Amino acid sequence: MNFRCWICLLFFFALPEISSLSAADVGKPAPYLLPDGSPDFSWSDKPAFLGIFMREVDGKIAAALGVPGLAGVMVTDVMENSPAMLGGFKAGDVVLTMDKQAFQNMQMLRLAIMKRSPGEKVTFEVLRKGQVEELKVRLGEKKEDGE
Q1: What is the distance between the alpha carbons of residues 38 and 110, in angstroms, rounded to a whole number?
Q2: I need a labelling partner for 23 at 20 to 30 A (CA). Which of 17, 65, 92, 146 fits?
């Protein structure tokens, strides 16, 4: 089968999902897939902003932290003057929950934040130096470059 046939098949099978988009969805971030494989378009019109750089906790990181089997998202850096910095996040924190909801990967955390609105208060549980700490953060709005 040649390349053009693959492209045709791709569009044929993607058509039902593409046709479910509305004009209001144009310009919004791409959806994440739910466990059943369907797209999740349930984000806020103005997605909230936390201001962290992160990576997923893998087996090596969990072992280095002395917590085998640990699942979560590690903060690798915190943006200056961001809601995360104001809320007390530090590089090396492992995000365990947001409002009691656990996260297995970065996409789940990003989606949970995108579903919120700027100004909402949320509570994070983070693992810091072997201790679980609670951080209360008022989510912000991401500013465009130059603002």
Answers
A1: 17
A2: 146
Q: Is the dihedral of CA 72, 77, 111, 49 positive or negative?
A: positive
Distance between CA atoms of 15 and 134, rounded to whole angstroms? 44
Task: List the beta bridge partners of residue 125.
Answer: 97, 134
* Other beta carbons within 10 Å of 97: 18
- CATH number, domain of 117, equals 2.30.42.10
Q: Is residue 146 part of a domain?
A: no
pLDDT tens figures, 20-78: 444 454 444 555 555 566 555 555 567 889 999 999 998 888 888 888 788 889 999 99
Place of tokens 């039902």: 16
Predicted confidence band of residue 18 (pLDDT cuts 50, 70, 90):
very low
Overall number of domains in the chain: 2
Q: Can you give the three-state secondary structure of 80-132, one letter per residue?
A: CCCHHHHHCCCCCCEEEEECCEECCCHHHHHHHHHCCCCCCEEEEEEEECCEE
Domain span including residue 12: 3-40
